[in-house]
Design brief:
Structural class: alpha/beta
Mean pLDDT: 84
Order of helices and strands: HHEEHHEEHEHEHHHHHEHEEEHEEEH
Distance between the termini: 65 Å
Oligomer: single chain
Largest sheet: 4 strands, antiparallel
Shape: elongated
Strand content: 15-25%
Strand order of the largest sheet: 1-2-4-3
């Protein structure tokens, strides 16, 4: 539809400029809608016609734009012609615009806007979109909703444009927090409550064990040992973790169904706990892995020792971190899907949160100054 209006403008311009309409269409662009002021619908960049270097302040460009606008006339399609900085602006007849849009929407339905000739030469690509990605054993909240809606929109848009889209839900289902949750459930959990309202009960357990770990070093130590057991493949620890994961996904699927959202793949950090070791070997083979005095493994992203560009990829006890597993996931997806583009839709927050790379505990840093340190005494030691 927009291309039809462009073509009408281009035909009138071609008579004055003695150029084929096809050569002019690409120089006529749609103007974004503004809430603050009423703007034109389309504009012609005089600069692109003259071959200048986008210097809209040049007198000759402004003069050319004014002269061209004076020669152009309004018709049944164009109701108003004006000039801007190096541009000639066109406003479309509102009655015609409204009628044309409604007729096209009725005709095309859900395909409205996709038949534009602007998309005809668009190369089809393989695109991976990772979105939503809630943390297992935690309630689905508004932060996840933002990522879910935006991610689903991006995936729908790319799919509508003819791209091959893979939708991935990368669950937060691994990490030190499951050491805390496993220990917490052993101390404060009830099977009946877990079955009746899993996410609520697991949330209550997690809050309680966090408080205990802050005051009791033995609880904190037990949580650390539980996660080590998970990483080493202890069957009893893995069985409890799997139960938390399965119950969480059941709840999430119900929510996604109500939202009209679907995924091609439910993945998670746990899928890459083994492959993260391969990532460490790869980094080491490329000479990128460095060991610290404390025994952690890091990668210097700056190449010159800038502390703000250090990424920790292994704890001192040999267990992996989120960054390690995320690298493994990216490599695995490239091998599996051979994508052209991968889009991460993350959960945005207005508050400033910090996350400990050792124990994975998060805390609010909003309004605080200086370097952030983990609030758990046992973790800082």
């Amino acid at each position: 539809m927009a291309c039809g209006f462009r073509r009408c403008i281009a035909r009138q311009l071609s008579k004055l400029l003695d150029l084929p309409p096809e050569n002019l269409i690409k120089s006529i662009s749609a103007v974004p809608i503004s809430r603050k002021e009423e703007v034109a619908d389309f504009q012609l960049s005089v600069d692109s016609l003259l071959g200048n270097n986008n210097d809209h302040s040049r007198p000759d460009v402004q003069v050319q734009a004014t002269r061209l606008a004076e020669k152009l006339k309004c018709d049944t399609v164009v109701s108003e012609i004006s000039t801007g900085q190096g541009t000639v602006n066109f406003k479309i007849n509102r009655e015609l615009l409204t009628k044309t849009v409604l007729q096209q929407v009725t005709k095309d339905g859900s395909k409205y806007g996709l038949n534009s000739e602007l998309f005809s030469g668009l190369p089809q690509k393989k695109i991976v979109v990772e979105f939503s990605s809630p943390n297992v054993a935690k309630k689905f909240h508004v932060g996840h909703l933002r990522s879910t809606i935006i991610g689903n929109f991006i995936a729908n848009l790319k799919e509508a444009l003819g791209h091959q889209v893979t939708r991935i839900n990368y669950l937060g289902d691994w990490g030190m927090q499951f050491g805390l949750l496993g220990t917490g459930f052993q101390l404060f959990g009830y099977e009946e409550k877990l079955q009746s309202n899993p996410l609520q009960h697991l949330f209550e357990v997690y809050v309680q064990v966090n408080k205990e770990a802050a005051d009791n070093k033995n609880v904190a130590k037990s949580a650390h040992e539980f996660f080590q057991r998970l990483e080493l493949g202890d069957m009893q620890a893995l069985e409890l973790w799997q139960k938390f994961r399965d119950l969480s996904i059941e709840e999430y699927v119900r929510i996604y169904k109500r939202l009209g959202v679907h995924f091609d793949e439910y993945s998670g950090e746990s899928f890459y706990r083994e492959k993260s070791r391969e990532v460490l070997k790869l980094l080491d083979s490329k000479g990128l892995l460095q060991k610290t005095i404390k025994g952690t493994a890091i990668v210097d992203l700056s190449g010159n020792g800038d502390p703000s560009s250090i990424c920790t990829v292994m704890r001192s006890d040999g267990t992996s971190l989120y960054a390690t597993r995320d690298l493994a996931a990216a490599i695995d997806r490239m091998d599996k899907y051979n994508f052209d583009t991968m889009i991460y839709v993350i959960k945005g927050k207005k508050s400033i949160f910090s996350k400990c790379s050792k124990c994975c505990r998060s805390w609010d840093m909003t309004g605080q100054k200086g370097a952030s340190t983990c609030p758990l005494e046992w973790c800082r030691e």
